[in-house]
Amino acid sequence: MIITVRFLKNLLGILLIALLPSQFSWAQTDTQLQSHEELRGRAIQFLSSLPGITHESKIKVNLPDPHLSLVNCESLEFFLPAGSGQRGNMRLGARCTAPQSWSLYLIASILQPVTHYITLRAMEKGQTVTANDVMASPVYEHHPPKNLINDLQELAGRTLIRPLPAGASLRSNDLHTEPTLTRGQTVKIIATGKGFGITYEGKSLANAMAGETVQVRTQSNHIISGIARTGGIVEISGH
Predict the structure, then answer these.
(1) Where does 186-237 sit in CATH, by number?
(2) Which of 24, 146, 151, 192 could form a disulfide with 211 if both were Cys (CB 3.0 to 4.6 A apart)?
(3) What is the pLDDT of residues 142-200, one digit of tens each?
C-alpha cells in the first residue's frame, strides 16, 4: 500500500512538471496577442492620411470582435477594397505579413462636414433674414436634411414664413421664395476667369433664386448658364 501511494505521488509530480511548460507557454502567447485598440488606432491613422481628409473630418473605426485573437503583428498594412469609396460607411482591410499572416475587415466611416446656417436668436414670421442673424455650423450626417441653407446669397431679401427659435437650422422652405431674378429681366453678366473679367448684359430666361443656376440670353443671342446673384447679376466662372 505504501509503495502504491508513493508511486501515485511520484506520478502526480511528473504530471505537474509536464504541464507547467504548456501553461507557461500559454501565458506567454496571451501577452503576444494583437491589441484591438492599437489596431483601431492605426486604422484611424491610415484613414486620416487619405486625400481630402482634414482635421474637420470625423473618422470612426469599430473594434474587431472581442473574441477574435490575433498574433501581434510586426508588419501591418491597411487597404480599401476595390471600388470602395472614401466617404460614408466602408469596410477597411487590415493585413499582417509577419510574424504570422492574418487579415480581417474593420467597419469604418468617414463623415465630412456640410456647412449650413443656424439662427442666432429667435426670429418672427415675416422678419427679413440677414447674414447678421445666422451663424455657420457644420452637419455631420450621411444624409444631411434637405433644403438646408448653405449659401448666404440664398438669404438675400427673403423673409420667414414661420417663427424660428434660436439655434434652428435654416431651410429654404422656411423662407418666402420670391425670385431674385425674373424671366425676361435684364441682367448684368459677370464672367471671370484666370487673369480676366468681362461684364456685359443679357436677359434671364427663367425665374431664379440667389445661388441657383439660370440660363441667360446674351445680346449676341447666345444662351449661357450662370449663378443668379442679388442685384440682377449672373456670375459666369471661366477656367
Answers:
(1) 2.30.30.760
(2) 151
(3) 777 788 888 888 887 788 999 999 999 999 889 887 778 889 999 999 988 877 888 99
Q: Confirm whether 114-174 and 186-237 share one CATH topology.
A: no
- Residue among 66, 166, 69 at smallest CA distance from 124: 166
Q: Is the pTM of this model over 0.85?
A: no
Q: Collapse the DSSP code of 30 into the 3-class scheme (helix H, G, I; strand E, B; otherwise coil) and give the result.
A: helix
Q: What's the rounded Cα separation, in Å, for the pair 181 and 189?
A: 12
Distances (CA, A) of 229 to 158, 173, 182, 187, 208: 13, 19, 12, 10, 9
The grid coordinates of residue 194 equal: 484666370
Tell me the three cell numbers of residue 83.
471600388
